[in-house]
Target: Bifunctional glutamine synthetase adenylyltransferase/adenylyl-removing enzyme
Amino acid sequence: MRPARSVVPRAGRLGLVEPSAPDDLQALGWVDSDSIELLWSLSRAPNADLALATLMRMRSALGQGWDELESVLRTDKSLRGRLFGLIGASSAFADHVVADPPCWKLLRGTTLPTREHLIEDMLGVVEATPETGPNAAPLLFRAKHTGPAVVAQLKKRYRDHLMLLAAVDLAAVVENEPVLPYQTVGRHLADLADAALTAALAVGVARVCPDEPCPSRIAVIAMGKCGARELNYVSDVDVVFVAEPADTRASRIAGEMMRIGSAAFFEVDAALRPEGKSGELVRTLDSHVAYYKRWAKTWEFQALLKARPMTGDLALGEDYQRALLPMVWTASERDDFVPEVQAMRRRVEQNVPAELRERELKLGQGGLRDVEFAVQLLQLVHGRADEALHVTGTVEALTALAEGGYVGRDDAANLTASYEFLRLLEHRLQLMKLKRTHTLPPQSDEEAMRWLARAAHVRPDGRNDALGVLNADIKRNSLRIRRLHSKLFYRPLLESVARLDKDAIRLSPDAAVRQLKALGYLAPENALGHLKALAAGPERKGRIQALLLPTLLEYLSDTPDPDAGLLAYRRVSDALNDQVWFLRELRDEGAIAQRLMQVLGSSAYLPDLLVKAPDVIRLYADGPHGPLLLGPDPADVARGILSSSARYDDPKRAIAAARSLRRHELARIASADILGMYDVPQVCRALSSVWAAVLGAALSAVIKASEAERGGPAPATFAVIGMGRLGGWELGYGSDADVLFVCDPVEGADETDAVKWANSVAEKVTKLLGAPSTDPPLQVDAGLRPEGRNGPLVRTLAAYEAYYAQWVHTWEVQALLRAHQMAGDEDLGVRFLHVVDKVRYPKGGVSPEAVREIRRIKARIDSERLPRGADPATHTKLGRGGLADIEWTVQLIQLRHAHEIESLHNTSTLQTLDAIGSAELLSASDVSLLRDAWLTATKARNALVLVRGKPVDQLPGPGRVLTAVAHVAGWKADGGAFLDNYLRITRRAKAVVERVFGE
Model:
């Protein structure tokens, strides 16, 4: 045997820090090589010093019996794990085994007793026999022993059973024993509670009715965690009593059972009964039913979710369940049910003292109550129509919710894992002193936190010690619970589902048609066909659709055309049938579902785009800094389109890549527009940037392919000049791209060959972009070039300069006011703009003859270009106070004054208006009227395209289409108010146009 001093360094390595540890090991004789396994098992105990001190106390208490225990410890690894785990984790159980040393032998059992064996054993303590009177029931007994000593005897036996469970639960901490699942622990504790209260009830019956049969049928209903069979080691056991008849003696029996149970086992609490602590302790079944029908509050129905007959007359308990549970599953139909449950959770959270909120495992943010409230709310709302949710346990309910599609599988798995982790910590905290607690030790108490880490089987991970890992796990799980709680507990669909009747949720034809009519669907039978088709998909997807549809129908009912929106939703759902994320996002992200329905019920332009660019739907969610639809800067989008297409050598593939990103951007921009996230200038800028990028991508791809075919560099540089609304960066959804093509031969190249090559490039770009497609068209229009459509498609820079110096017409000068470099060789584009600056901003300003010509052309356009049958008051482009009026007025002012006011050198109508106001060429009120008219007309024109799905300039008359246009344009009132506003603004602007343009 080694000398005692050799143990000193080993004690520290074993986690023993008490000064007496080396001497204690020496006294036990555990200092030789034969004791290595004992020592290492001891070192893995949650508190090795506590375990060693307890062993020393047991050695003294056992006397000669110590040799037997030590022999077993050396040979029985399982017992060693149970005993060391127990006495190293719980000072209370350490005291228990010291007070009754032979009880260690109870830990040699290999299995936990069943509920039946527990009941039999607890009844055996009081030598109970079955009640044989007229009110006999399988779990109603009469105790033989009822004297004062019975409480101590029951307490001892209950503590023995609790000790065995704790030892089995803790064995894996010390030895490689199977981990006892959390649910197994909770169920066994509930079974033990049933057995304990069965014995307490037997004593109560014998005390109240010692010489006569039990006077009533008495059922004890377990509530709360006991009812759900997920009890803690130390917890109140909530009960409710039902008796027939509920007379004085029945109340006395119930009172005796509670007193005995509270003294021997745990606090028995009947506060969840009707009227709480001020109500009768025992009621008849009819009295319970009457109370819940008339007086019960929402929280009382929530409590009934976990009701379970536990002892006494189980048949009466089952009658209680059958009578009351139907009320539980209709409780969500009560007014303000969902907000009331949500408010109740907030009140519970607010009642936690501020200094304890970070340490509260149960009631604080990210605690156990967050999980339980979320799960119970989902059960109550959806359980009306789905009996699979009629379960009591939290984990079982989460599993059922996931199977039913009400919660995502990943969310359910994560929530379950975090819930079980916090329950494990709660159990370990309670075992230390067998006290009811769910509060973590303060972070300053590192020793207590280290003990908790070891008791919870938390191990170092290579970067952090066990304490660091525990703290990180607590934070991670709490944050995960809080995130998922917020996601599920405040899900918008809960309120809308709660408001619908059960038949409507199940899509009963009559109920569904009635509901659809009430929601404003004009063709409810057609809508019902869509609903049936959606809900008849693959099993899980069909269930999720059935869950979502009541909410989606309500969202659609707030849109201008719910019928078209539902059809569009069906098309999108069918197209994304193989996309597993789609329904999950709609279910879990309330903002996505609501925004998608608003878009689909408002726009014929977007559904096809969303089918082809479904990832945009994900952007309907809110990010940490606002709606994801707001997206990147237009310049970043343009760079993305150019870089994506540049990966391909084949022009068709390059343009296909650019089209794909354009499709995505059009869907994103249009969605943000409909949802009111973009104003008019932002929409125009974003659309123009996308058009310019696609032009640039197509041009680069065609030139690259041409150079590869030629086997050398291009004979000319090439640039695309934007004109019209493209040049002003003010494109709308239905706008074509007005352009000019310009080339410049490179040094040494033949000009004829260069121009021929450039024309070929321009033709290919125009043809490829204008190829038939189901996307919104990409029409390139070069009609504003010199000599119009009769002139060459491409000219050299020198040819443009010569033409503009000698032959330029007044309308061409005006058109050049919007010229802006868009794509291709930037240096060439800028040189072109320098050339045309002399033309569009002439020294001395435009001549009086040119002004008269402009006015003449405008008058001709007003009389001849307006489509036949069009209403000049509501034509957004050519009508009174419309876009043409505003833009021609602004351009006339530019022509007359830009030579002297450099800020007028601008292609944007709005920015030029700002410059006109700053230069005081017009009054601030006139500028404001013109600006408002331009914005109003542009907004209306864009809204027309979004609603109709095709370019339209004429506002419709009163009716559903006008209402839809008004809705998309941001007017939630009726279409008449929108139209009146449009007419008023454009009328006032027309007065300014006539005064300024015609002066």
Notes: The two ends are 119 Å apart (CA to CA). The chain has five domains: 1-106, 344-379+387-489, 500-624, 632-840, 848-997. The longest strand covers residues 737-745.
